[in-house]
């Protein structure tokens, strides 16, 4: 019987053919907890009478949102989680490795066909590796820590077929922003977005992670990129696993099939205060910015920093009066950028380069905005108050647009630099 990728994953995991709409208890291959939501999950686990977690090897713990600890409660959370990891024999990456989603991917903890949960909404990022990955609440995570399984309603899927080739300085972030604008913030609620088509196949893993990462911004439960040779190269370089085919059947019962062509796509910008409030960069060009953030689980990879540095080119300095904060998404990405000379270029140009963490993305630690200030950010959310004051304005863009804007101190089309 024909099936979508999500249906195939749940069928394989449940040992019988399941279809969208069914509620199943499915095993969880890996569970990620971090410094913000982890402590509550551990407390729920205890309240459920949990003594030993179901399998410490399947639990991924790390700290990224408030690191190094920016308050005494944050430091206490870290201590609480470290004790739990020691007691349970869980490997804790602590605050050394970087942003959760980047770390799960680069440590090879996600692979095609797996079911992965995390107490973070952007857990859907691992769909770039062909996994069914979704964010869950801390209460559900308490259950997962104890039983290693969870109830899921197998989601319906929207097939997103992306054809064409990106123009110069236009890429994955522009595509996913335009999809958010088109589908809307709740247009894919509880569904899986299944990405396929030439533009996806030609996209590198960094770009695929950017796309899968933002599936939740359309309400999707998961965003799965159909695995291909690039997926398997990425996964097998990190773990011992035999490649297999995983694709949606052409006649599967998709809820919807959407077709896009990126050939003429302009750089996209999400304007305050919603991610689906998306316009061509030209519509907001000239908007003055106070702060620019290049980083996050959406766009903090080496490829993103390279894209920004390429736009920077031989320019001496970023514009006066704009604060440019650059944060590589992980230690590994940081080292790649460092060795390639990108960090030196950013620092020379006047950026503040911080150690891997979520940084200003959700205004949880540092880099907060004052009332009336304007930020352009390569992250994934621009909700009111997201990066500080509720009276601040947050725009979202690609790293190329962010770098071009940093050069002029105002939102700038990277194709014109
Ligand atoms: C803190 C965490 C629960 C939150 C999320 O779930 O996404 C954060 O990572 C975010 O991006 O808003
Ligand atoms: S970088 Fe931003 S979106 Fe990603 S996990 Fe951290 S706070 Fe959430």
From TrEMBL:
Binding of [4Fe-4S] cluster, residues: 297, 358, 361
Domain Aconitase/3-isopropylmalate dehydratase large subunit alpha/beta/alpha as annotated: residue spans: 8-409
Cross-referenced CDD domains: IPMI
Catalytically driven reaction(s): (2R,3S)-3-isopropylmalate = (2S)-2-isopropylmalate
Cofactor note: Binds 1 [4Fe-4S] cluster per subunit.
Top-tier EC class: lyase
InterPro entries according to UniProt: Acnase/IPM_dHydase_lsu_aba_1/3, Acoase/IPM_deHydtase_lsu_aba, Aconitase_4Fe-4S_BS, Aconitase_4Fe-4S_dom, HAcnase/IPMdehydase_lsu_prok, Homoacnase/IPMdehydase_lsu, IPM_dehydratase_rel_enz, IPMI_cat
Entry annotated with the keyword Repeat: no
Domain of life: Archaea
Cofactor names: [4Fe-4S] cluster
Pathway membership, UniProt: Amino-acid biosynthesis; L-leucine biosynthesis; L-leucine from 3-methyl-2-oxobutanoate: step 2/4
Alphabetic keyword roster: 4Fe-4S, Amino-acid biosynthesis, Branched-chain amino acid biosynthesis, Iron, Iron-sulfur, Leucine biosynthesis, Lyase, Metal-binding
Enzyme Commission identifier(s): 4.2.1.33
Keyword hit for Cell division: no
NCBIfam families (alphabetical): hacA_fam, IPMI_arch, PRK00402.1
Subunit structure: Heterodimer of LeuC and LeuD.
Function: Catalyzes the isomerization between 2-isopropylmalate and 3-isopropylmalate, via the formation of 2-isopropylmaleate.
Family from the record: Belongs to the aconitase/IPM isomerase family. LeuC type 2 subfamily.
Protein name from the UniProt record: 3-isopropylmalate dehydratase large subunit
UniProt organism field: Methanoculleus nereidis
Lineage of the species this protein comes from: Archaea, Methanobacteriati, Methanobacteriota, Stenosarchaea group, Methanomicrobia
